[in-house]
Amino acid sequence: MNYSEKNGAGEEGECKESVLTGSVDLESKSVIKNGLIASEQLTIDENLLVDPKQLFIAAKIGEGAHGKVYEGRYGDRIVAIKVLHRGNNSEERASLENRFAREVNMMSRVHHENLVKFIGACKDPLMVIVTELLPGMSLRKYLVSVRPKLLDLHVAINFAIDIARAMDCLHANGIIHRDLKPDNLLLTADQKSVKLADFGLAREESVTEMMTAETGTYRWMAPELYSTVTLRQGEKKHYNNKVDVYSFGIVLWELLTNRMPFEGMSNLQAAYAAAFKQERPILPDDISPDLAFIIQSCWVEDSNLRPSFNQIIRMLNEFLFTLAPPSPPLPEPDNIQPKPVTGNSAITEYSSRNKGKFAFLRHLFASKRVKN
User: Fold this and answer.
1) How far apart are CA 180 and CA 255, in angstroms?
2) The domain containing residue 351 runs over which residues?
3) Would you say 301 and 278 are in contact if contact means Cβ atoms under 8 Å apart?
4) Do the Cβ atoms of 155 and 193 come closer than 8 Å?
5) Alpha helices, H only, 173-207
6) Fewest CB atoms within 10 A around its CB: which of 70, 177, 192, 333?
């Protein structure tokens, strides 16, 4: 859901479940149809629906495999409107309606400052999902716009922490995203924060289903999503939420290098290299050992060895505390003569003050972690 705009309800950064949690039907019972495992149709609670007469669609701002996204208005509010495809036959229509209901139900369940805010949905005459509109661009477009320049390290790490917080919230609510990549991440207008915008391929962890070609984009996908040999009829593809951790590792690498993962390869070549040759994007020689450890632990082959997003957030915060604060832009002097500085005394004094400050913060962080 490529549309563009820090917390919904509750305290800053707190992951909240919707008060409508009890009103949405997220259970998908397996049934046998034509020898294949299928799911009964999901339903959407009437409380989640908006009046289509209040919706006004304007310019298209994005397009994906499953729908188009427009800027629009709901009542007096500027919003993003995702219009999903209906399908060309009854079987395809039923599948797409099920996907639509699943996405609506999941978006209505979770609230976090780093998740795009869900407003409502329509079933007729079009399948529509309405969310807040972010005036910023996607992380993908932003990275391309500044390439080959690297992001400031503070900016890159803060973006990574935003993404990890959003994913931690999803996992805390039993949701696997399966398609984490820069195209699905949007910058806020001030370009200081990132929000996760698309739940189109997300699934509940309780739902095990057949492996499908729709899942994710190969450059960012965990190998276990596609590397298993052809499954026997009726056999299910098994994976857990650590597929999202693998994708996060690729995104973090991208934030630090501002390069396309597996550049020079096609999507299928990238998939083959990752799954069957255990290749990963090359880490820069000058990368911090702490960051290298986080990235490599995220994309390790054995998914059970990958960290949780809660652990990733802690590691990234610990690394952030070791960095000197970013230098603020200096105001232009206006007839003010600067004081002479002798040698490196001013720099030494500043450096020692901050060393003490960050040592205290690291000690405080470590103490809290032990208590938890």
Assistant:
1) 13
2) 339-372
3) yes
4) no
5) none
6) 333
Residues 6+ apart with CB under 8 A from 72: 55, 56, 57, 58, 78, 79, 80, 81, 130
| Strand partners of residue 132 | 79
- 30 has pLDDT over 80: no
Residue 196 has pLDDT above 80, yes or no: yes
pLDDT-based confidence at residue 353 (cuts at 50, 70, 90)? very low
Return all residues near 340 (Cβ < 8 A) that are at least 6 apart. Answer: none
Q: Which of 25, 76, 124, 179 is catalytic?
A: 179
Q: Are residues 301 and 352 in the same domain?
A: no
Q: How far apart are alpha carbons 360 and 340 in whole angstroms?
A: 31
Q: pTM for the full model?
A: 0.75
Strand partners, 118: 131
Encode pLDDT of 268-325 as tens digits: 899 999 989 999 999 999 999 999 999 999 999 999 999 999 999 999 999 999 998 8
Q: Which CATH number fits the domain that encloses residue 158?
A: 1.10.510.10
Give bridge partners of residue 83 from the DSSP assignment: 68, 128
Task: Please indicate whether residue 285 is annotated as part of the active site.
Answer: no
**Residue 315: inside a domain:** yes
Residues 172 and 72 both lie in one domain = no
Other Cβ atoms less than 10 A from the Cβ of 238: the count is 10
Q: Locate tokens 């669609």: which residue?
A: 57
Distance CA 273, CA 225 (A): 14
Length of the chain: 372
Bond from prior residue into 148 cis (ω within 30 degrees of 0): yes
User: What tens digit of pLDDT does each residue of 235-272 get?
Assistant: 556 788 999 999 999 999 999 999 999 999 998 899 99
CATH code: domain of residue 95? 3.30.200.20
Residue of 127, 130, 168 lying closest to 42 (CA atoms): 127
Q: What is the C-alpha separation between 44 and 123, in angstroms, rounded?
A: 9
The closest of 285, 294, 299, 254 to 156, measured between CA atoms, is: 254
